[in-house]
Specification:
- The chain is about 10% helix and about 35% strand.
- The protein has about 100 residues and is mainly β.
- It has a four-stranded antiparallel sheet, with no helix packed on it. Strands 2-3 form a two-stranded antiparallel sheet.
- Strand 8 and strand 9 form a beta hairpin.
- The longest helix is centred in the N-terminal third of the chain and has 12 residues.
- It is elongated.
Length: about 100
């Protein structure tokens, strides 16, 4: 019975974890330019830009999930160095909170 409940929960979460992506036109030649950083990369390579997007020459996808459901006494704070959201207590930032639903990555 527990396994069935877990499977149902996981199936319900699948739509919440789809990554945020956008396509990029393939650059002719051997390199392409990242739109955010204006850096050049070899075709076939991958990189993470300053907007926390994991990119190739054909597309970029978010490298993080955005928490959407968590307790009301908590807040979501983005850590741009780690490229992740941290959900913590509003009155005590040292205490992490559970995340019940998120979108992205």
């Amino acid at each position: 019975m527990k396994l069935l409940a877990l499977a149902t929960l996981l199936c319900a979460l699948v739509p919440l974890i789809s990554p945020h992506c956008y396509g990029k036109p393939e650059t002719s030649g051997t390199h392409c330019q990242d739109y955010a950083d204006k850096t050049w990369h070899a075709v076939g390579s991958s990189w993470r830009n300053s907007n926390c997007m994991d990119c190739t020459c054909s597309r970029c996808c978010s490298a993080y999930s955005t928490p959407k459901q968590f307790p009301p006494d908590c807040e979501s704070v983005f850590d741009s160095e780690a490229c992740e959201y941290i959900v913590r207590k509003k009155n005590d930032p040292s205490v992490r909170c559970p995340i019940y639903g998120a979108v992205g990555k």
